[in-house]
Amino acid sequence: MQTITAGISPELSKNSYPIHVGSDILRKSSLILPHLIQKRVAIVSNSTVAPLYLDELRTSLESHGISSVPIILPDGEEYKNWQTLNQIFDTLLSNQCERNTTIIALGGGVIGDLAGFAAATYMRGVPFIQIPTTLLAQVDSSIGGKTGINHPLGKNMIGAFYQPRMILADSATLNTLPKREFNSGIAEIIKYGLIRDNMFFDWLEENMTKLLVRDYDVLNEAIRRSCKNKIEVVAADERERGIRALLNLGHTFGHAIENAMGYGVWLHGEAVAAGTLLAAKLSKRMHLIDDTEIERIQKLYIQAELPIVVPDLDPEKYLHLMERDKKVDSGKMRFVLLKCIGEAKVYSDVPTSILTETLVDCAANE
Predict the structure, then answer these.
(1) Which member of 154, 231, 250, 295 has the lowest number of beta carbons within 10 Å of its beta carbon?
(2) 350/41 Cα distance (integer angstroms)
(3) Is the distance from CB of 169 to CB of 227 less than 8 angstroms?
(4) Is 251 a catalytic residue?
(5) 16/28 Cα distance (integer angstroms)
(6) Which pLDDT band holds residue 15 (cuts at 50, 70, 90)?
(7) Dist. CA 209–CA 230, nearest whole Å
(8) Three-state SS for 213?
């Protein structure tokens, strides 16, 4: 097992938390106990994950005298909304959960976002722990304190920054993850290599085959290096006023895809993969990268069995959806573009004509 310290402020000792990465560590409740204020927790999970891992977690906690209130939600991105959030509040209130009752998220990114937002707002803030069970959540969404829900007009439009007290990433839980969802998480792993860690990108090119078959050594290393990259970015910019925006590579396009197709039709990582290739091709049109780098990026996504072509929608539809993205600043769309593999920058001066040409060309090549 490897433990990484996530420091989320310049005064790291005052605001930091551990990220435990390893195989078969879910039952090690001794890792959780130091972060509990009282001997009672609420565990938020969903109808897919709960039958697999909820009893194991509850039994482990009970062996140390910790009682738990289970909150089982329906599974799917389409349930990341006010109605589902209120189910959490209803259970917390009906069970008289207190201000010191820790909320534990046991599940993927949707559960982490919902449980985190509930923790940030229930009684104006209660302790929160993340136990992510999908690859995407282990390497991305559980880290950094972003919580929230979707709105019919946009993804993640309502939420709060709220840091967990710890993260426990057990790679053994990925054994039950469907192949499509596992591959979706790889899209976020590749992102770190593209935006800031070219050596990691090289490593992924060499180890993608082992990663796809879930070799524990390679998988744990990929999770560890992804976590390390993300916490370094978040520590420098917790509330996304600067460098943290680089983590949105491919997301402006990706969120538009998810919205246009209907939440859940395209998995988040699938939309980010196609959106990243679109951002790379836009980068080329802006004379930032060349064909050689495009080919390397595309080859790695193909090897990871991820989509590299966006859905064939009217470019005006894409533009309309992207204009509503929460990353729009002063009425201008912002795009994370690649200067090379391993370096990215945010641009807010992309000409609409070049953006439209890129969308048309990518749709035409489908």
Answers:
(1) 295
(2) 48
(3) yes
(4) yes
(5) 21
(6) low
(7) 23
(8) coil
What's the rounded mean pLDDT across residues 236-262? 86
Q: Count Cβ atoms below 10 Å from residue 121 Cβ, excluding itself.
A: 17
Domain ranges of the chain: 2-176, 179-364
Question: What is the Cα gyration radius of the chain?
Answer: 20
CATH level 3 topology of 179-364: Dehydroquinate synthase-like, alpha domain (1.20.1090)
- pLDDT mean over 220-244: 90
Question: Residue 322's pLDDT is what?
Answer: 82
Known catalytic membership, residue 255: yes
> pTM of the full predicted structure?
0.90
CA distances for 197 relative to 154, 203, 228, 265, 278, angstroms: 30, 10, 11, 31, 20
> Is 62 labeled as catalytic in the residue annotation?
no
* Active-site annotation holder among 240, 258, 270, 293: 240
Rounded to an integer, the average pLDDT of 27-35 is 93
Query: Out of 20, 46, 183, 188, which one is annotated catalytic?
Result: 188
Q: Respond yes or no: is residue 64 known to be catalytic.
A: no
Q: Does the structure show a pLDDT above 80 at 8?
A: no
pLDDT exceeds 80 at position 85: yes
Q: Given its phi and psi angles, is residue 335 left (phi above 0), alpha (psi -120 to 50 degrees) or beta?
A: beta
268: annotated active-site residue = yes
Q: Which helix (H) or strand (E) holds 279?
A: helix 268-285
Element (H, E) at 317: helix 315-323
Which of 155, 248, 259, 281 is catalytic? The answer is 248
Pairing of strands 102-107, 40-46: parallel
Is 326 annotated in the active site?
no
The CATH fold of domain 2-176? Rossmann fold (3.40.50)
Quote the CA–CA distance of 283 and 269 in Å, as a whole number.
Answer: 20
- Where is pLDDT greater, at 182 or 313? 182
Token pair of 308 as six digits? 């590299």
Short-list 50, 17, 28, 217, CA closest to 129: 17
Could you give the CA distance from residue 358 to residue 315 in angstroms, rounded to a whole number? Answer: 9
- For residues 165 and 17, the answer to whether their CB atoms sit within 8 Å is yes
**For 113-122, what is the mean pLDDT?**
98
Cβ-Cβ contacts under 8 Å for 345 (sequence gap 6 or more): 246, 336, 337, 339
What does the pLDDT read at residue 153?
Answer: 82
Assess whether 35 carries a catalytic annotation: no
